[in-house]
Amino acid sequence: MKILIKLLNMASLNRVTLIGRLGKDPEIRTFSEGVKKASFSIATSEKYRDKNGELKEETQWHNIVAFRMLADRSESYLKKGMQVYIEGKLTSRSYTDKDGVEKRITEIVANNLMILEKRDTSETTEQHTIKEEPPLPEYNDLVADDLPF
Length: 149
Fold this sequence. Notes:
Blueprint: H1 2-10, E1 16-22, E2 27-30, E3 36-49, E4 55-67, H2 68-77, E5 83-96, E6 102-115
Parallel strand pairs: 4-6
Antiparallel strand pairs: 1-3, 1-5, 2-3, 3-4, 5-6
């Protein structure tokens, strides 16, 4: 226990984990060195009951940036409305907008991105049937010759 306390006193942690839906398709920028950057936002929602017992939903928007391979993956696969899992670190930066006003933005720089739903590979809005796997046999239905050992 003393070692853990000592480690906690010496280290810090900046880690964010989110599951949410994309608010829009990713915006892709390619820098002169060939490095890509994907920018997009995701929404997370929390439901709760207020003091009157009414069900409320609060939505938070999070700015996400992804670089290099994750930017390529974002460009190829992510679309507005998709549910994604994001791991990364929280960063803040300042910039000057086109009107000369200094702005501050907080972003999550992704280091892991996972799509949490099946991708529709069609270019049209047709519905596709997903082939289900046949059910596994019941234990009692197996015979000795079916066992792998």
